[in-house]
Amino acid sequence: MVTIELERTVVAKALEINDSIFVTKDELGRGIDAAKTASQTGEHIGVIDADDNYYEMRVLHASDAGASFCVTQRKTGLVGDDALAITVAQSACEPEAMKTIVRGTTELGASELVPLVTKHSRSVAALEWQRLDTLVMKTSLLAGRDCQPRFQDPVTIDEALDRIDRYDLVVVYWERATDDDQYGQKLSDLVQRSVANDSTMHIALVFGPEGGLADDEVAKFMDAGDNVVCASLGPTVLSCDTAAITAMTLVQSAVRRLLDSLR
Asked: What is the mean pLDDT of residues 120-148?
C-alpha cells in the first residue's frame, strides 16, 4: 500500500473512521499521482499527518485539483513503533550501498529516510531516487510493516538544519568523534523524559558518504542546537551501509534497554 505524508495545515485535527477530507494538489505534492491511481484501482492508500497519526484511506475522487479521502482505519501513534521514531539521514553514496541502507533501515523500522547532499556525496539521477522509493515500498511489504517509511526528496545540509527542531535528538556519526559519553547521557535523558511524558522519541541519525562528512559540515550540525551530538561507531572505519544499519540497531537496542530499566 502506497503511503503519503500530509502537512499539519492540512489535517487540523485527528480524523476518525468514516471522516472525509479534501486535500489540494499542492498539499498532496507527489502524492497526487498515487491518489489518482488508487481512485481508479480501488486500492486504499496510507496517509500520515504531521503528528504521525497513520490512516488507511479510500480515495473517493481524484483530479488535477486534488483528492477526496474517506478514513477506513486509524492507527494513533507513530509508524512502526509507538515509543521510538528514527529518521535516517544518509549522504548519497554508491548505488549498491544506498540500496542496502534503504532495505536494511526499512526492515528495522525506520520512520523516515532522508537523502543528504554533502560535499563528498555522490550525484544521483532522479530516476535512481524513484527506484529507491519503490524499493522502500517493496521492502515494507516483504517485512510485513503496516506502512512504509517516508522517503523524502534529497536535501542539502542547510535544508536539513532547518528541520532540526523536529527531532528530540540528532546523532551525527563521525569517525573522529571523541565524546561518546555525551551521546549516552543525552539518550538516557531523552528516554526518561519520554517515559515521564508518555511521548514518542524522535531521533535522527546522520551519516556521511564514502569519505565521510567534511569538518565544516560536522561543525554546522554541532552548532545547530543542544539536541545535536556527535558519536562514533568504534575505532574502525565502517562502510556506509554497515554504519547506518549498525547504528540504527544499536540505538534501538539502547532505547529498549533503558525503557526496560525504567519500567
From this structure: 78
- Per-residue pLDDT, averaged over 45-73, amounts to 82
Rounded mean pLDDT of the chain? 84
Sign of CA dihedral 124, 127, 130, 132: negative
Percent of the chain whose predicted confidence (pLDDT) is above 70: 86
Mean per-residue pLDDT, 120-147: 78
CA 191, 195, 196, 201 torsion-angle sign: positive
Overall pTM surpassing 0.85 (yes/no): no
The answer to whether the Cα torsion of 6, 9, 10, 13 is positive or negative is: positive
Listed in sequence order, the residues at least 6 apart from 6 whose beta carbon sits closer than 8 Å to its beta carbon are 23, 27, 28, 47, 48, 49, 50
C-alpha gyration radius of the chain: 19
Q: Where are the alpha helices (DSSP H) in 146-239?
A: 157-162, 180-197, 215-222
Calculated CA dihedral for residues 21, 23, 27, 31, nearest 10 degrees: 100
pLDDT for 98 equals 92
**Could you give all domains of the chain from N- to C-terminal order, each with its CATH number?**
3-75 (2.40.240.20), 84-262 (3.40.1280.10)
Predicted local distance difference test score (pLDDT) of residue 130: 72
Which three cell numbers, joined as nine digits, stand for 75?
492507527
| Cβ pair 101, 88 in contact under 8 A | yes
From the CB of residue 173, how many other CB atoms can be counted at a distance below 10 Å? 22
What are 160's three cell numbers?
Answer: 536539513
C-beta of residue 158 within 8 angstroms of C-beta of residue 119:
no
Q: How many C-beta atoms surround the C-beta of residue 231 within 10 A?
A: 23
